[in-house]
Design goal:
This protein is an alpha+beta fold. It folds into two domains: 188 residues, no CATH class; 153 residues, no CATH class. Helix content is 51%, strand content 20%. It contains 13 helices and twelve strands. A six-stranded mixed beta barrel has the order 2-3-8-5-7-6. A two-stranded antiparallel ribbon has the order 11-12. A hairpin with a 4-residue loop joins strand 2 and strand 3. The longest helix has 39 residues. The radius of gyration is 30 Å and the shape is elongated. It starts with a helix and ends with a helix.
């Protein structure tokens, strides 16, 4: 039961995390300058000047359902009393909604001229409300510091912790003006099928040469690594479950052997071979495992249903640990998912493990002499 539930829960949290990364940060694809360097966010080489040519080509792709232009750079947000590092994202709200779900999660206010949208957690940490003024300070390519004043005109509360904790959104055209540029740092793309990213990547690379093109998988490598590591830990956990099951089944079948001395002696006296006795107890062990797994699946479906529908509110844990230390891109409620694979695995694993665990007790039964078995009858 626990194996099926924990596997389904991890799959569900992974899916939620990937959805949040795609819906708020990366889209399905991201196109950047060929010389783009994350370590130099405001380098002139990072800006795409001829992006309109790229957009013209994207319009002709039937599998592309949306695209939007963005400018991203790091800065320091200051309320005159406190400051914190942040990611500033210049967006065009009109086209942004074709790729990202951000507009649906504006909790209050809106993105106005001369204003900024703040992630809710960042706003709370900085004790900022709508109407307050902030300063965004950033370092230009030449090393000079520049600062802009903006008014908080909206608050965003999304399922994505990066958006909530450290992101400031401003109008794209104002971002261009602040940075004195006509370019953008990226074009985010949404497609009709995220799982076809390899095929679409090949087509984009061939039709739009001279740019960095990354899929949501490429952009989520850090998270994928964390996910794979956690899967390994869950495999270790499953191993210990198997050990516990082995011990339990060995004891159960061994007790069955001791309780059935009379039957074993009678069967041997009637001409049953050692092979017949061995198969009988192996079948008994396999049946115990099979029926146990079916019962476990039914129980796990009931348990998992609750977590699929209602989820697990992890807000207290996230507040204690910090969303950035969780390893998953969720803010509050983590929901499970329906997965058939662990259910099928549990049936085969429980049946085979039970048969293997029954082998030792079965061998003990085979070694019994008919006369000895019949003499022990009370």
């Amino acid at each position: 039961v626990f194996y099926i539930w924990i596997d389904s829960f991890l799959v569900g949290v992974n899916e939620q995390s990937f959805d949040n990364v795609i819906n708020f940060e990366t889209g399905h694809f991201k196109i950047q300058s060929i010389a783009f360097d994350e370590d130099k966010p405001l380098s002139e080489d990072n800006f795409m000047k001829n992006y309109e040519e790229v957009i013209d080509k994207l319009r002709k792709k039937s599998y592309i359902t949306g695209y939007t232009r963005r400018i991203k750079f790091t800065a320091e947000i200051d309320n005159t009393e406190d400051s914190a590092p942040c990611l500033v994202v210049g967006i065009d709200l009109e086209s942004d909604k074709d790729v990202f779900t951000l507009p649906r999660f504006i909790e209050s206010g809106s993105l106005e001229t001369g204003g900024v949208l703040l992630g809710k957690t960042l706003a709370e940490d900085m004790k900022l409300e709508i109407g307050d003024f902030v300063y965004l300070t950033f370092r230009e390519e030449r090393g000079m510091y520049n600062s802009i004043e903006a008014r908080v005109t909206g608050i965003v509360y999304s399922p994505d912790p990066v958006t909530n904790n450290s992101t400031v959104f401003i109008n794209l055209n104002e971002a261009k003006e602040f940075l004195n540029t006509t370019g953008i740092t990226e074009i985010a793309i949404k497609t009709d099928d995220p799982d076809s990213y390899k095929k679409y990547m090949s087509d984009l690379n061939s039709s739009i040469p001279g740019f960095q093109i990354k899929s949501w998988v490429d952009l989520s490598q850090d998270f994928l690594l964390i996910s794979e590591t956690k899967k390994k830990f869950s495999s270790i956990f499953v191993f210990f479950i198997i050990i516990i099951a082995l011990v339990g089944i060995i004891n159960t079948v061994l007790m069955s052997v001791l309780e059935k001395k009379k039957e074993i002696g009678t069967l041997k006296a009637l001409g049953f071979t050692d092979s017949d006795i061995l198969k009988m107890f192996l079948f008994e062990g396999g049946t115990i495992g099979f029926l146990g797994s079916i019962f476990g699946i039914i129980l796990s479906i009931i348990v998992n249903w609750y977590f699929v529908v209602h989820g697990w509110d992890m807000s207290p844990i996230i507040e204690e640990m910090g969303a950035e230390n969780m390893g998953y891109r969720i803010m509050s409620v983590a929901k499970s998912a329906w997965t058939i694979k662990p259910m099928i695995q549990s049936v085969f694993m429980a049946t085979i493990v039970s048969m293997l665990a029954s082998y030792y007790p079965a061998k003990q039964a085979v070694k019994m002499e008919p006369a000895e078995c019949l003499r022990t009858i009370q």
